[in-house]
Known about the structure:
By secondary structure, the protein is mainly alpha-helical. The chain is 44% helix and 5% strand. The chain has three helices and two strands, in the order αβααβ. It starts with a helix and ends in a 12-residue tail after the last strand.
Amino acid sequence: MPRTPLTLGERMRRRIAGGPAGEEDARVTVSIGIASCSRDATDYDALFEVADKRLYQAKAAGRNCIVGSGKPVRLVQAG
C-alpha cells in the first residue's frame, strides 16, 4: 500500500484503537483530520482550519475514522 497521508493516518488509528494487549476495557479510538499545504491551503492558519474542520467531520461520522479531502475513511488492508 503506498504511503499517503490517509494510509499513514489509518495505520496510526489502528495502532491506537488496538490498545494495550489484553485490556479490552481500555478501548481508545482516534479521529483524524488531514489537510495538505499543496491542495488545501496556502498558509498555516488556513491549513489548520481545514484540518480542524475535517477532524470534526470525522467525529460527526461516528468517530474512529479519518477525513481527508473526501468522505470519512476506515481503510481495510487485504489479507
